[in-house]
Amino acid sequence: xxxxxxxxxxxxxxxLLACRLDVETAKPGNVSVASAGHGMQAAQFIxxxxxxxxxxxxxxxxxxxxxxEAVTRTRQIAxxxxxxxxxxxxxxxxxxxxxxxxxxxxxxxAAVEQVLSTLxxxxxxxxxxxxxxxxxxxxxxAPEQSVHAPPTVDLRAxxxxxxxxxxxxxxxxxxxxDIFGAGLDALARSKGTTATALTLDVFLTxxxxxxxxxxxxxxxxxxxxxxxxEARERHAQARVAGPEAxxxxxxAWDAELKARGVNPGTSADLTVAALFAGALIDPQxxxxxxx
Length: 291
Known about the structure:
Radius of gyration: 18 Å
Shape: globular
Oligomer: single chain
CATH class of the domain at 2-184 and 269-286: Mainly Alpha
């Protein structure tokens, strides 16, 4: 029991670190300490992480309960949707920690698959309530299993219906393959010498891999595809440009995206989940001190 409690304590610390790096890193189009945007400030994201953590890492709680409690606490502290995507991703990851005795990527992902396979209608009901409470623009509007009506299938099945158009839903369908695959791979391959440089590498990897779901919902496929192409090009340029030139170019792109109301929020959510997993599996990579 003590070992399990220590793991949950480490997991909570890893989650809070990932959320802090999310806003400490100047990621184009996203809210950061250096650049507010979309009517939100960095402090709201930090406060949201602190509010959500106890619910996400509540021992024995169902995935649906973790999601609903975390979103409820977030709304109380932030007053807006700051972390729904993060909560939807981290809840199954956190629940899976109670099913594995060996903390490496393979065992953790296998435990996540076990958690996903046991999701039921109650999990779907709770998650639907959370999504409705967070009230994210466009998320949950679907021809089948819309969150505006009671679910009739379990949470994984409902998410699978949306997997083709939403990257977070896709993780429920594919066993978090993008988090344990592209995300952890980007973290391992990064040449960044600071935690924020590592974070930016992971973010640009996700943003350059496929269209951001949040941009797709708000602005359509053409713009989302153009942002993905630009992210891929800028990421390649960043590998050869000096740090100062790199930062200046990304700062200009950040201002341009925010001026147009373009927020790659889903890519940021995936980044937080990958950082959370990476920090817990390899504490030294992001300077997490094991308990």
